[in-house]
Amino acid sequence: MKRRTIKDIAKESGFSLSTVSLVLNNHPRISQATRDRVMEVVRKYDFHPNSAARGLASKSSRTLSVVIPNLSRVFSDIYLGEIISGIYERATSQGYKILLDIATAQFIASQEYTKLLASRRADGMLFIASDIHADYLHVFEGAPYPFILVNHLFPGKRLNYVAVDYASSARLAAEHLLGLGHRRIGLIAGTNTHTGLIFRDEFLRACREWPAGAADVTWVDGGDEWSQRGGYAATAKLMGLRPDLTAIMAANDRMALGAMRWMVDHHLEVPEDVSVMGVDDIQIAAYVNPGLSTVRHDLYQVGIESCNRLLQLMNGEIKECSDLLPTSLVVRGSTGRVPAGK
Amino acid sequence: MKRRTIKDIAKESGFSLSTVSLVLNNHPRISQATRDRVMEVVRKYDFHPNSAARGLASKSSRTLSVVIPNLSRVFSDIYLGEIISGIYERATSQGYKILLDIATAQFIASQEYTKLLASRRADGMLFIASDIHADYLHVFEGAPYPFILVNHLFPGKRLNYVAVDYASSARLAAEHLLGLGHRRIGLIAGTNTHTGLIFRDEFLRACREWPAGAADVTWVDGGDEWSQRGGYAATAKLMGLRPDLTAIMAANDRMALGAMRWMVDHHLEVPEDVSVMGVDDIQIAAYVNPGLSTVRHDLYQVGIESCNRLLQLMNGEIKECSDLLPTSLVVRGSTGRVPAGK
DNA sequence: TTCATCGGGTAAAACGCTCGACGGCGCAAG
DNA sequence: CTTGCGCCGTCGAGCGTTTTACCCGATGAA
Hints:
The longest helix of chain A has 16 residues. Chain A has three domains: 42 residues, no CATH class; 127 residues, 3-Layer(aba) Sandwich (Rossmann fold); 133 residues, 3-Layer(aba) Sandwich (Rossmann fold). The first copy, chain A, has a six-stranded parallel beta sheet with strand order 2-1-3-4-5-11, sandwiched between helices. Chain A has a four-stranded parallel beta sheet with strand order 7-6-8-9, with helices on both faces. By secondary structure, chain A is of the alpha/beta class. The first copy, chain A, is built from twelve helices and twelve strands. The structure holds a DNA duplex.
């Protein structure tokens, strides 16, 4: 069966090639009557224009590249799911498709991130995969291609980004704990991303400069995967170092859940003995017992916004972008006033 | 900055257009000397051939469409992640890219699944998103396009598929529990997929026909999301109906974890009071306490194999495919002999 | 010496669509 | 009755590759 082309539609409908093309692209130049006649034939043959030909002629692939990290359990991370859903929603609504890539060693080594754009396979790129070591991204400085770092940023590099405001999260969290009277706090940080470092540093700063008296913060690394396991191990370490801690602050909810689990396993009550706080407000945070106090990061919104910005970059509406999205405190049962006499 | 084309490379290297093209496609026709001369220029300009033009001329997009379900927390399902990783690995190794789509209502309603292939945006489709209601897939019967159902199947429809052998899983699980002496078993089934139904029916059959005496199986639905929450609720229901159950069989590990959680909350020991068993062998199954006995489903392999089959379908090596992948029993601590006197 | 063969390269016709330039026609204004 | 202008539609020149013939010169056999 021969594949149909726009030519067949033209012949059958009695109009010219160009007319059919214009109809298919909803060009206002064409009258409703003509449009109807053409569409009738289009529908009759269930015709769909060849996208390669379209891409070639129009110089646009109507495709966005999305690069996700190569963590073993990457998909199990709700974090990513939310972002991708947001991106998908936005991209689809604008007629764009999503080309998915995983930032494997191979992907990086063969510079696929450049090829994708240079070969026009994708019109722009949303990079969710960066950690602190992604120096190769410097090729995107100076914006040779529409490129956005999603929920990450590199201080000092001129790379477009859309991210949650981790510094503000750190402040909200610190103020909450300090306000409850905590002065000996354990911090489980993520140090393999710049956003993680920003969070840590701002949290430490806020605790140091608290008007009602500085807090004593001990911090440890929660591991590169920001996982429950990592949080558990980090908590063990913290409590070993400082058994007198009254609060644990984890840089994300999953690590916080690990911390809570450690408390249960060691017969410590949350928040009576130790308060535990996370960041992100993942779905399960509301369901654990006690509910996890956290700072809400709207990752879906990050996805939406990144995609928006990328589209704007692509059609020249903006030249660069460095958005920080607001966060908000979510107080649940896992944090409480510092125990009397502690 | 003008975009370079193959023409520029031809001019600069002193060869013809066709020669450059042949070089770029590793055609044996060209001598090593020529190849080197051309590649030198290619590298000098960091040239990457336009993929739309390629696609148009070669009639292949070198892209595979992957459609995933529209569950709210779909990405948090390790199940999907494993499959996609497998697909990605295989596709990439063959020079194919992945076009990701989510089976939203919109996606279905606008028949994107057809458009994608008809417009040649993708050369083939891997459909992971099907549930029992996906009747619209009938358009793929008779193989108008390379299409494979991943880890699902529709009895009675001639649709290609690659799936884990759920019937064999059911038998392995049943034999394990029956062999331990259990005769009053609660089954948490998933009924929104055909594979789920196959599992349930085969499990019931195996229990009915057990040589050493049929078991009494009570089954309930675990909910459409096959989630921990669903498993928890289903367990509550089962234990309400039949407080004398000695074993709970869940159609996947996540529901089994929900069941174990219910036991903990109700001060029942696993497996001393009640044995609990799952299916899939997700990563966490080995880490819970006690370890979850389960039937191992190698979802990564399902991804690899589906992609393999799709590629074979695409280049005509096979005409259809209905693969069932083997499963194996994994015994951990959550199942034990039926309690004495019960 | 002649001629078939072959390795290695080239010319040029697709591939199927977009879009800017162009033009015919009818109607209102001059 | 011209002229000008808008509205609708058409012409046709690309877009950047792939790929099928075809060509040419060297080589070896007859």
